[in-house]
Amino acid sequence: SVRQYIKPIMKELPDKRVDASIAWYRRFLVWVEHRWRDRSPGTHKLFRTFQTGVGGLVTDFQDFVTVWTRVSGGGAPYSHLGYREISLLRLVPKELARATPALCISALPGTVLFLPVLFYFPRLFLTEHFWTPEQRLEFSSAQLRRRQSEYRHLIDDLAFLQPQLDSAALRTLLHNIRTGKPNSPDLLAGSVEAFEHDCLQFDYLSYKHAIHLSRASGISAFRLYREYRLWRLAKLLYEEDRAVERANFVFADPTKPSDPAAERLLRQQFCLARGYQSWNRPDSEADKFVRQWCRLSAGLRDTNNERRLAFMLHLPSLMASVEFEDSQKSVDKNNERQK
C-alpha cells in the first residue's frame, strides 16, 4: 500500500531538516564573520586572538588532565614524562584560575562585548595564550623584577640561620654576596648539604622566610597550604630539570612536529621559572644557563632528596651572584682533576 512507502520517508524527514539547518547555520556564521572582518577588522582580529587563546588553553588543560591522571594514579613516575608534560602540572592550575572569567564569557552569547575589558587588563584576566610577544616580554620582565626584589630578603634569612646551619661553603657564599664578590659554581654546589637542616624544611620556615620564599618563587604567599605549594613547586622544578637532562637539553615536544619557535618558548619558560630572563638574549647564553642550573640541581640526587628541596627555591637568589664558565671549560677542569 501507499502507507508503507510514506512511513520511511516521514522518519527520515526530521534528520534531513536538522542537517539542513546545521548546514545553513554554518554558512550564516561564515557570512557574518566575513562581513565582520570587512566592516570592523580591529574587533574581528581581537575576536580571532581570543578564539586562538581559548583553544590553546583548552588543549593544555586536556593534556594536563591526561598527565595528572597518569601521575596521580601511580602508573607513571616522573622519569617517564617529558619536560613539557611536567611543566603542565606546574603552569596549568595557575593559568586556569586566572583565565576562568574569560572561559566563562567565551561560552556566553555576545562575547565580543566583553573582549575590550579582558584585553584592556590582559595580565589580570588573561594568560600568555592570549598575549602578544611584546606583552609576554613586558609581563614576564615585570614579574621577574618583583621576584628578584625578594632575593635580598632571602639572603638575610639565610644569614640569620647561618649559625644553626654550620656550613663553611654557605658562609663563604653569603659573605661574598654581601660584599659584592662573585661566587663560583663549585662553591654554590658545596652549599647543598646545608639545606638538609630542619630549620630549612618547608614546615619549619619562619613566617617571614616563608613569605619571602613564596614571593621570590612567584607563587601565592597566602598561609593556607603554603608549605605544600612550596614543596610542590620545588619538586616539579627538580623533575623538570631531570627531564631536560634526559632529553639532552633539547626542548622539543616529541609528540609534535619540530617547531623552533615552540622550542624557544619552552626554553624561555624554563629560564623564567628559575629567575633568568632569556628574552632578547642569544640561544647560546640561555643554553649555558640551562646546563649550569641542571648541574647544580643534580646535587639533590641521593637519599636526602626530599630534605634538600628547599635548595631549589633558594637557588635563583644564590645563583644571581655566580659567574659561570663555558660548559666545555668546566668539563675540561673536571677531567684534569680526575687525572
Automatic annotation (TrEMBL):
Q: Residue ranges of the Letm1 RBD domain?
A: 81-300
Does the record bear Lyase in its keywords? no
Q: Which UniProt keywords are given for this protein, alphabetically ordered? A: Membrane, Transmembrane, Transmembrane helix
Q: Spell out the InterPro entries in the cross-references.
A: LETM1-like_RBD
Q: What parts of the sequence cross the membrane?
A: 99-121
Pfam families, per database record: LETM1_RBD
Q: Name one GO molecular function term.
A: ribosome binding
Q: What is this protein called?
A: Letm1 RBD domain-containing protein
